[in-house]
Amino acid sequence: MQTFAIPAPDQTQTHTLLNATLAMGLVLMTVFALMAGKSVLVPFAMAVLLWFIINAFARRLARLAGNDGEPGLGAVAAAILIVIAICVGVAEVVASNAAAMVERAPTYLANIDVLTGKLSGLIGLKAFAELTAAIDAFDFDAVLLSLANGAAGVAGGIGTVVLYIAFLLAEQQFIGKKIRAMAANDDRHAKISAVFAEIGQRVRTYLFTKSLTSAAMAGMVWIALEIAGVDFAGFWAFLVFILNFIPVVGGIVSGIFPAALALVQFPTLTPFLIVVAGVGTAHLVIGNIVEPRFVGSSVNLSPLVVILALSIWGFIWGVAGMFLCVPITVIGMIIFSEFRSTRPIAIALSENGEIT
Questions:
Q1: Model pTM?
Q2: How far is residue 6's CA from residue 3's CA, in Å, rounded to a whole number?
Q3: What separation in angstroms does the CA of 340 have from each of 186, 296, 343?
Q4: How far, CA to CA in Å, does 331 sit from each of 142, 167, 191, 200, 350?
Q5: How far apart are CA 177 and CA 309, in angstroms?
Q6: What share of the chain is helix, strand, coil (3-state, %, to 5)?
Q7: Which residues fall within 8 angstroms of residue 189, CB to CB, at 6 or more apart?
């Protein structure tokens, strides 16, 4: 009788499969841990980002004073005061505009009634009745309660973020000493210090270039809103500036609100069309031409990677994850590039396959 020998499994394939399984398990465990620890990790991540901003201001102030080295205590204190002044100014702008919107709400509601009346003649009475029923069924109280709870959550999280920032500022003077103590030798210390320096430089560059392009987009939108005569043009421009830090979708979403206000504020479509044209031009020039060239080169991330990072971090941490997705991905790419086993991941994340 003829017998057939069963081939022994390839050890290389078995090892590869085992590594892939372990890697997938590690990824799933990491995602679960990030989602489970959202209440702790999101404030800390926001604190680290603000800590970067404070140090960036401190470095800029130190250079203006003629100090090219590490910023001193005076520069750090001045940077903290600048950030506090910006946050207080933002809070006042939001609060004042929210109060003014509440005062003008009856006028907007009356204009909505006029608009729906005109719409009924265009779409027919039956479709208009269905639209009116859908509007009446919308639970505005639930929306307001959700917004109030969200605002309370943000207010509660601010104290935690401030506490984290205070400890980070107190700890940063010892970071260099700790890195030297943990390093096995001078070469290892130099390599670790270089990684931290590159992370800091890349994140600061991203924040600076993104702030410039967001300000340019907000300025173009503000001009269009002023020409159209839309209420609260400065507030909507500020909203464009903030939401533009969310890649791709942030700027689009921020442009919807002033366009919708123009639609209910005026009896004609001309202001609405002006706003749409202004927002569209800003996105065409800044979002599709200027920003990819300057911001893309500063982070060296593939546009596809940015979209995936937006989706993944938005799923894990919500809106906060959308704001933080680019800095987190940049930091991950830099760390991956330092190890031979994860260097292919860094290459895949990069824009052109070249990593430093």
A1: 0.76
A2: 10
A3: 21, 25, 5
A4: 39, 21, 15, 9, 12
A5: 33
A6: 85, 0, 15
A7: 179, 180, 183
Give the Cα separation of 317 and 323 in Å (integer).
10
Q: CA-to-CA distance for 330 and 313, rounded, in angstroms? A: 13
Each residue's pLDDT tens digit, 114-140: 666 665 555 555 555 555 555 555 554
Return the higher-pLDDT residue of 142 and 45: 45
Nearest in space to 201 (alpha carbons), one of 298, 291, 296, 337: 298
Query: What is the token pair recorded at 123?
Result: 């779409």
Q: Dig out the tokens for 103 from the structure.
A: 């005062």
Distance between CA atoms of residues 324 and 312, nearest Å: 11
Q: Which of 8-17, 155-164, 327-336: highest mean pLDDT?
A: 327-336
* Distance from C-alpha of 151 to C-alpha of 84, rounded to nearest angstrom: 19
User: Which two structure tokens, joined as six digits, stand for 285?
Assistant: 């020039």
SS3 301: strand
Is the separation of the CB atoms in 206 and 298 below 8 Å? yes
Check the CA dihedral 56-59-65-68 and report its sign. Answer: negative
Instruction: Give me the torsion for CA of 132, 137, 141, 145, rounded to 10°.
Output: -120
Beta strands in the chain (DSSP E): none
Alpha-carbon 262 to chain mean position? 27
